[in-house]
Amino acid sequence: MLCVMEQDAPTPPASDTLSFEDALRELEGIVHKLERGDVPLDESIALYARGEALRAQCQKRLADAEARIEKLTLGPGNIPVGTDSFHAD
Q1: I need a surface site. Which of 8, 51, 63, 73 has the fewest CB within 10 A?
Q2: 37-44: long-range contacts (C-beta < 8 A, 24 or more apart)?
Q3: Does the residue 71 lie in any domain?
Q4: E strand or H helix at 82, and its extent?
């Protein structure tokens, strides 16, 4: 059996060059295509791999952003006295 991938489809940009919002939008589109279930197997595998790369990029960007966020530490009278690292609960 010979499987031919569509050659006219543009190569998507590398996931690490996309903004977080663009990567998330593309990932959501991939999820919708895969959930429909009407994508050929080879294309599904390629979409899954692309989706995994986008998911990893989004997760890394969120972790990096979380590491940069600091929360104010308030002292008596709710006066800011310093900062602590942000840890999501």
Answers
A1: 8
A2: 42/3, 42/5, 43/5
A3: yes
A4: strand 80-85
- What one-character-per-residue DSSP string does 6-22 give? -SSSPPPPPGGGS-HHH
Domain contains 60:
yes
- Domain containing residue 66: CATH number: 1.10.287
Confidence of residue 88 (pLDDT cuts 50, 70, 90): low
Q: Could you tell me if residue 7 is inside a domain?
A: no
How buried is 42 (Cβ within 10 angstroms: 0-12 exposed, 13-18 middle, 19+ buried)? Answer: exposed
pLDDT digits (tens, 9 = 90+) for 8-46: 455 667 767 899 999 999 999 999 999 999 999 999 999
- Listed in sequence order, the residues at least 6 apart from 49 whose beta carbon sits closer than 8 Å to its beta carbon are none
What pLDDT score does 87 carry? 66
What type of residue is 27?
L
